[in-house]
Structure formats: structure tokens, C-alpha cells
Amino acid sequence: xxxxxxxxxxxxxxxxxxxxxxxxxxxxxxWLSLFAGAALVFAGLFGGGIGDPLxxxxxxxxxxxxxxxxxxxxxxxxxxVIALSAADAYVLARRENxxxxxxxxxxxxxxxxxxxxxxxxxxEFQYVER
Length: 130
Prior knowledge:
Elements lengths: L4 H7 L5 H5 L3 H21 L20 H34 L31
């Protein structure tokens, strides 16, 4: 079945949802893990309670508004991860649609041409040369 690339990219705004639409479970889990990891790392670096990351360099974030630092420190990296996830889902959907998957005449599922029968409904194929 052909998947729409725009729908996959729109769903990928929530990490792993666009990849679940494409049935790429492992890749979806990888994007979700990357999103969660980026959120934890950048929240920890900028105001997550670990300490002032600029203190060893002699600088301090005390002069900057902490709300602006926290928001920018989280929004930018997470936005990049979301944008890359959406782009990946779009490219995957385009690539799958380009392949031209053959389907079984009985059940309509994708078939493997190296087999002489449908894996799902066991109908035998008859190949006709043109």
C-alpha cells in the first residue's frame, strides 16, 4: 500500500508517529530515543539542577534571564530533531512509493517475487512473459 509522504512528515512532528505510519518501528523508536535523549541532555545542561555549566570557564548565566536561556536551550535542539525526523519520514515514504510494490491478486498485500506464492494467503503465482 502506498503511503503519503506529506502525511508521514506531518505525523513525524510527534517523534516516532510518522515512522509508525510507515511501519518502520525500529527507526521510530530510534527517533523517539534521540528526542528523549536530547531533551534530557539539554535540560540538564541548562538549568536542570546539575549546576552551572559555565562556572568552570569563569562565566555565569546569572546575568542572563534564565527563562530565555532555558527555552532557547530546549526549543532549538528539539526543533532540529523534530525537523530531521519529519524529513526522514518524508524521504522514506517517497522511496517506498517509488519502488512499485507488486501485490497479491487475492489478498492485496505486497509480495516477494523470489517466491512463487503469496506468503499471506498461499495463492500460487503464474508468471506471464510479455
